[in-house]
Amino acid sequence: MNRTLIILFTVGVVLSTTTVSGQPEPPEGMVYVPEGTFIMGSKYGDPDERPQQIASTKAFFIDRNEVSNAEYALFDPEYKFAEGRENNAAVVTWSQANAYAKWAGKRLPTEIEWEKAARGIDGRIFPWGNTYDNTYVVWDKKSSRGGSIAKPQSPYGCYDMAGSVWEWTADWYHPYPGNDVPMEQYGEKYKVMRGGSNFNNHSFIRTSQRYYVLPEKIANYPVGIRCVKDIE
């Protein structure tokens, strides 16, 4: 079996992603993220993003787009949304997102999986690179998925991993191992959401940015779904 090893030298370490010819075909609407290490966290972001570390994942599939209103309504016929917004990202609570993922034969991503899918292995600040560009972002949840002018993708082919709606992860809001900065929000009260949304501040859409929210109280935060699927 042919193997290609991609090596990246950065922050004093060697990162690797192994891709295998004949890699599994992603299910419809999903992309493939290979097994390997990547740079997670930030030296310069908020205290909860530290310490920057080398994390690793198994290979997995992840949705190319956030789950749309029309897709979510197939799961919950009582779910209501404005006419003409079938292709907009659904906004739901954590329990609704988790139930949808199980119904679809998938699950919610861990923080590690989400960040790897968003930034790849080179520690980039945004899914498209290290330079901010307003045309790359969907700022308004009224816009359809993939509705930015430039339509950038993450390294693995995902859309809207910066902006659009926030996205639920499976994880409670805990400090990273080695983080000694106290925060009263840590524990099993808040779930972590990723990807930013309609905050008028591009720091919120960095790939390493973490934010917390009560899982069933999202009035101030449009949070949506991007599912992952294990590779058997």
The helix content, as a percent range, equals: 10-25%
Strand order in the largest sheet: 9-8-7-10
Shape: globular
Share in β-strands: 15-25%
- CATH topology heading: paralog of FGE (formylglycine-generating enzyme)
Count of distinct structural domains: 1
Quick recap:
The chain is α+β, with helices and mostly antiparallel strands and 232 residues long. The chain has helices at 69-75, 94-103, 111-119, and strands at 3-10, 13-20, 30-33, 36-40, 53-57, 60-63, 166-172, 191-194, 211-213, 223-224, 228-230.
Characterize the structure shown:
The chain is built from 3 helices and 11 strands. It has 232 residues and is α+β, with helices and mostly antiparallel strands. It has a single domain, classed as paralog of FGE (formylglycine-generating enzyme). The strands form 4 sheets. The chain has a 4-stranded mixed beta sheet. The protein has a 3-stranded antiparallel beta sheet with strand order 3-6-11, covered by helices on one side. The two termini are 19 Å apart.
Descriptive key words:
4-stranded mixed sheet; alpha+beta; 232 residues; paralog of FGE (formylglycine-generating enzyme)
List the SSEs and their pairings.
Elements: E1 3-10, E2 13-20, E3 30-33, E4 36-40, E5 53-57, E6 60-63, H1 69-75, H2 94-103, H3 111-119, E7 166-172, E8 191-194, E9 211-213, E10 223-224, E11 228-230
Parallel strand pairs: 7-10
Antiparallel strand pairs: 1-2, 3-6, 4-5, 6-11, 7-8, 8-9
